Here is the input.
Amino acid sequence: MAAADLAAWAVVLQKLGLHAAPSVTSNFNMSFLSRPSPGDLLADSELLKLGKRQAVCAVRISSNGALVAHATVTYAIVLHPPT
Here is the structure.
């Protein structure tokens, strides 16, 4: 779950820059589809919608190329002016 949240936060920061770092998760929904095989997991995040106050991301978690979980993450955007 932390990997999905981090992947979504990273895609929001990539789009808005580091002054959006204080943004916080306002909604998190995760569906576990199957048991992952032993080894590494890959979290792939996509920005679905970026508004003035919220960003919505879809995160796919895969294990050895097989989809094992899907998450939808909404961030409340908090912008601080760059210093």
